[in-house]
Amino acid sequence: MKMEFHPKAFLSNKRNVKLGLIARTRILSELEKSPAKVKEIADTSKLSYKTVLYHLHLLEVEKVTIRSGNRPYVWQLTGVGQQRLSNTTSR
What angle do CA 91, 24, 48 make, to 5 degrees? Predict the structure, then answer.
């Protein structure tokens, strides 16, 4: 069975291993629904807090996610990260 990954789950500066792609796909799917804090993403995606935080930072470097507010930060997709969402709704 072939698994589909979120297009923005692929990183340009890191090796893209399957587990990382799965984790980033889950995180990005949650952020497409609405901006969220790390704990909320971890709870809904069934990933550990540290895993979510690690991948959010990787995605931030790639300019796919951005954090706002004070700690605990609220994470959301940037315009780069929302391109996929716009493309699927315009069909």
Answer: 140
Residue ranges per structural domain of the chain:
11-89
Alpha carbons 52 and 26: distance in angstroms, whole number: 9
> The tokens of 20 are what?
């990382």
CATH classification code of 11-89? 1.10.10.10
pLDDT in tens, 25-76: 999 999 999 999 999 999 999 999 999 999 999 999 999 999 999 999 999 9
pLDDT of residue 13: 86
pTM of the model: 0.84
* Closest to 31 in 3D by CA, of 73, 69, 82: 82
Burial of 26 (0-12, 13-18, 19+ CB in 10 A): buried
Q: Where are the beta strands (DSSP E) in the chain?
A: 65-68, 74-77
